[in-house]
Design brief:
Cytochrome Bc1 Complex, Chain D, domain 2, five-stranded antiparallel β-sheet
């Protein structure tokens, strides 16, 4: 009616009535050109401010799902609105009080509620075949029915270990997921982004049987206070499906433990010289990443027995952590050793924008949070600086963030054209990227897998296949080249 009135003023009512067909077409194009047919307000606000953590489909990413019916801090609209407005600092949830109006927040809550009601829509099935620039690829489900799988590693070509974040270590034997998890796994703090994180097999496993775990470890609560937590590294052995012979390789000084429940890191890798590297996120305290007396926001290097290498860069600094290898790292959840050079590469989550790929060198400062290409999740500025003398630039950064997670150099001849190229997993865009790296530069970047679940880990198996760990739907898929 509004359009008819407008057009009648412009062209006369008689002309409008005589040409209804053309008027309707003109009206549609007019509305479209003025942006009146647009994305609903709540969805627009969500995609701009929330999808980075909670996923574009609201089903979770670095943060929890918003459509699974679980509301830890209250499930009524008022509670949800309050949490959006004032934030939940312990979980890294920022306050949007300064960037979203009450009307914006109501629209956002309405969109979340409408999305909850749509739960049950069938996700796209994992395909049997996909095409890339270099190969036609067979895709098969290696294992399914997992709960928030986080990492995969292989004891041998017939045996894989998979961590589930709630605190279970699962064994896959000859392609079959064993019914019972490994018993006696250390207790983890399964809260926020914490839980059982990485698993790594000793390069000399056949001789020593060691398996390494990273997890969020909590101190016992004092006087009912919120337990403090930090990333911890242990090793042990599996005998008769039971975790035994545990040794604690790294436990932070207890004064370094923090009450937050996000940014734990953590990946574990070994270089050709036998050193063990692991990452710890800054735990939500960005400025502490610059403080070498603290363990968070760092890459650490130890010997496999937990002792400290004499060549560590801060070994002779009395005020620094002796295990620290690099600092100024926000939250590394992807690490890999180049199979030819032995260099350490890492991907780390930026905030909103500024995910990074870095070549990690001893003693270097990677800048967080003094410099960054990202901004806060609520849209506010962290810093105007992207460069500063004495701080490293990323080899590559993603803006917007793709939520990088899981990293491995492909090191087999099964995909011959991809040998020594870097596999990069991404949570937000549900993809695996393949990067061609020459020395310290990325020469080419292509997407080889996309749209079938949030990619938490990616790994080359002993059979040369590529294994992709999908948080949701709790599945690991196996990629092999199609020989036909």
């Amino acid at each position: 009616m509004v359009v008819y009135k407008l057009l009648s003023k412009l062209f006369g009512m008689k002309s409008v009535i005589q040409n209804q067909k053309y008027v309707l077409t003109f009206a549609f194009l007019t509305i479209l050109s003025f942006g009146c047919i647009a994305q609903p307000k709540g969805e627009t606000i969500y995609l701009k401010n929330c999808a980075q953590c909670h996923g574009s489909d609201l089903n979770g990413g670095n943060a929890t799902s918003l459509i699974d019916g679980v509301w830890q801090y209250g499930d009524e609209d008022g509670y949800i609105s309050r949490n959006i407005k004032f934030g939940i600092p312990n979980l890294g949830m920022p306050s949007y009080e300064e960037t979203l109006s009450d009307s914006d927040i109501r629209a956002l809550v309405q969109y979340i509620r409408e999305s909850e009601n749509k739960v049950g829509a069938t996700p796209p099935p994992i395909p049997e075949k996909i095409e890339t620039m270099d190969y036609d690829i067979n895709v098969e489900i290696f294992v399914e029915g997992l709960e928030i799988p986080w990492a995969i590693d292989f004891i041998d070509k017939n045996t894989a270990l998979i961590t589930e974040r709630p605190g279970r270590l699962r064994i896959v034997k000859n392609g079959i997921l064993q019914d019972e998890p490994v018993q006696n796994i250390p207790e983890v703090l399964n809260e926020g982004q914490g839980g059982l994180l990485d698993v790594a097999i000793d390069p000399e496993y056949n001789e020593n049987g060691w398996i390494y775990l990273a997890y969020s470890h909590a101190l016992k609560s004092q006087n009912g206070d919120r337990p403090l937590a930090m990333t911890r590294i242990v090793r042990g052995k599996i005998e008769n499906n039971t975790w035994t012979n545990q040794e604690v390789l790294f436990e932070a000084p207890h004064e370094n433990y923090r009450p937050t429940r996000h940014h734990y890191g953590c990946r574990i890798v070994f270089d050709p010289w036998g050193y063990l590297y692991f990452s710890i996120g800054e735990r939500g305290y960005g400025f502490e990443a610059q403080d070498v007396s603290l363990v968070n926001g760092k890459v650490h290097r130890i010997n496999k027995d937990g002792s400290i290498p004499e060549s560590n860069p801060f070994n002779f600094n009395d005020s620094a952590g002796k295990t620290i290898y690099s600092y100024g790292n926000r939250n590394i959840q992807g690490m890999a050793i180049h199979p030819v050079t032995g260099q350490l590469w890492a991907t780390e989550h930026g905030p909103m924008g500024g995910d990074e790929l870095n070549l990690i060198l001893p003693g270097r400062n990677y800048g967080w949070e003094t410099i960054t290409y990202g901004k806060n999740y609520n849209g506010t500025i962290i810093t105007e600086e992207t460069h500063r003398p004495g701080m490293e630039q990323p080899v590559l950064y993603w803006k917007p963030s793709i939520a990088v997670c899981g990293l491995d150099f492909y090191c087999s001849s099964l995909f011959k054209k991809w040998e020594n190229k870097l596999l990069v997993g991404a949570l937000k865009y549900e993809e695996v990227r393949l990067l061609d790296i020459e020395e310290d530069r990325v020469m080419h970047d292509q997407i080889i897998f996309k749209g079938y679940g949030r990619v938490r880990d990616v790994s080359t198996g002993p059979d040369g296949a590529i294994y992709i760990v999908l948080n949701d739907p709790g599945t690991v898929v196996r990629l092999t080249p199609d020989k036909n």
